[in-house]
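Input.
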Amino acid sequence: MSSATQTLRQPVVVVLGHVDAGKCVSGDTLIQLADGTIVEAHQVFERFRTGEPVEKSDGVFYEAEGLHLLSVQEDGSIAPKSASHVWRLHADKLIEVRTKAGYAIRTTPEHKFLVFEPSGEVRYVEAERLKLGDFLVLPSRLRVFQTDLGTIKAKILPLLSDDFLLRVSPKLNARVRAAAEGRQRSLGVQLGDHNLEFHIRKGYYRANVFRRIAAELDLPLNQAYDSITAMKFASRKQRATHKSPWVQLPQTKKQFEALLYLVGLLYGDGLAEKAHLANVSKDIINEFRRCVFVTFGVGTNQAWRRTCYIVSHKGGKSLARFLTEVFDYPTTDKTLILRIPEIVSSMPDRLVAKFLRGFFDAEGFVTEGRNIGIGCESRVLMKQLPMLLQRFGCLAYFAKKTRRMELVISGRRNVSAFVNSIGFRDRSKMEAARRRLSLSETNRVFELTPIPGEFVRQVRTNNRVIWNRHFQLASYESYQRLSANFLSQMFQFVPTYKNPGLQQTLTNYSMVRVSGLQSLEGDHTVFDFTVSETHNFLANCLIIHNTSLLDKIRGTAVQAREAGGITQEIGASFFPIETLQTITGNLLDRAGGELKIPGLLVIDTPGHEIFSNLRVRGGSAADIAILVVDVLKGLENQTIESLEILKQRRVPFLVALNKVDMIKGWKKGSEGLLSEVLKQQTPEWNDEFEERLYNVVASLSRLGFESDAYYRVKDFRKQVSIVPVSARYGTGIPELLAVLIGLAQQFLKGRLSVIEEAERGRGIILELQEEAGVGQTANVILTEGKFVVGDNVVLVKREGAVKSKVKALFMPKPLDEMRDPRDKFTPVQSVYAAAGVKLVSTDLEGVIPGTPVITFKEESEFAALKKEVEKDLQNVVVKRDTM
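Output.
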């Protein structure tokens, strides 16, 4: 609202209770974590789950601890985002989507893929609605969190088994001697070393003992690693010989680069168990010998064996077992069991590039006049490899009709990325790759778009482009499909043509066509991961995404932040009166109603009990609520808790009975008003729908609520209206809004009446956010009065209430979700209730979400307000601490 003269303000609507994973992938799907680690979906679930399980009728979910995934941001870039929950669910149907690049993924039918349209637009299409030839969008380059050497060292030290002896620096050994002074026996028992005195004298310790020493001395693992001067494999088995030599541990950047090249080379041409090299290239052999010496400080021997040279190192089992324990180097035939070590994929790009260079030197090839390629018998490793290459802007596809799996790198952009970021150490291969670069043009797997040549004619005509001697547009008008490279050049040569969305897509993404679709019936276990801020993550090089009921109401591309249907943070959207009129059509007129409110302010809140504090925040600001109930599951525990909150706060509500399209017998393609759609359904569907509707009515009755389908309700004051909807197809959304508006206008007039000049402005802080160019901001729901730039406000922190001042106010554009605006916020001088507003204040650091923000004029008012807001502070803090 922008004026205090309106008679009714917009009601604040809270959406509660919707819990639906909605976007699930099979357990073998490869997930790339924010640090680059590549892990299968089922392993992510097991590794990062924490706390007590929350049972659902179709599976279970947990809170996640320490899980960070790669996610697409609003500007199209890829960035690390925190995940809050992990899910394991059951599905009776999956869709396998195969692409021309050879990538494949199995998802639930409702999972949405980002599809590039011939119009140049990008939209989401459900897996079950994909068609052969659709162009899927995938990131051209992945930017992962760049781990430092200290973190890598802290990861390596716990991987060393007790079969390793670690020699430490004199300085650290002196600290151990001082700590053991007078209590060597007791400390030895505590550390698990009954020969502690002997080991202190010798200056070396078993790996497990050394880690306990580091903990005893409060020494971080990376610093403990730095104090190791040498290591030696010495088995704890009886009668085991301890002839393995002492070797140095890699410490410097140069040593780690040599180590990673060494590991990559041995993954391709190494001999299992002993980690010797078999190769014929002098360049590669010399580099191997150099890397062994630089990394471990030992020499090598070289001998010809029938078809190649065998280069053996002098590090014995100390070197070989280090590679096995840290990098999973196999001790038996490695051909089929290789996989990219997690510790390698989690390393920074410069080290990953060294690993890839070593592996390509061993297994890669360049065929004259063709492309760069690599082959390997291990299917697991070959499926992981494109995800590593993607980090360097190098997209690779699987070749057809080969006996083993082979990846191909072609096209100027991809070959250039490989040559400049990875390359070969073998000079003959590198020279061939550079020649290939000079011949490379368009990669037809990743760089063709569905945009036809007719698009060029439209651009040329609309922008009056006649001729350019460097770039003749007319020659492209007969093309069936235009390349991304051509379209990018077009923006340079036709500067009057403006299409920011297309430019952003071409800058950040590539396209790959759908080559196969298969429906897989049966009992499947699937997994999902909740990324609260963006609600998407990357899997098998593709983007996993989902939508919700509120998205259907918005009718925009903004996606709500849901934990598989559970919203992680409260969001707010304003729907102006014009939008409501468009959506509801003549439903209000037919009911004898009239739109008197200026719009709706919708808060989309979390749906599960673990977010009760967040939901109470939304509930405390709400005038009316929409309770979303899954028609197939009825009232679940989280739905019941939502009802308790609404009952406690006396918030009127209606029920959106969602997923009616999932009832057996639903006729797909049914369109029109809900009353017409229901008439089109089969008797089988109607019978089951009525039975499930009755179950919900009965459940609500047991909780003290009388209810019925909205078209049967006789007294809206006494009965809760139930509106059947399908968030997937949008069925019932107009009716849901019409009922909502009618209830708000008829029964909430007093609450919605605008007070000409409220004594003070009151709002609730939903969340704190960093905004580029602005700094820290607070997303606030203003429920009473107004905020003006320059107002004094009371804010609440853990230590109590503090004074602050409003520096700036920003309003999201209509229909934009507060945490995900497509455009910049609009700065305003004042805001009237009810509204969602972004507030900038002088002291937001440490302010607790869920607490009030209240304006005041005189200093004398602050003491009373401080007492008022601090009364509930303990309750809010306790709830946040237990979330």
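DSSP finds 29 helices and 42 strands in the chain.
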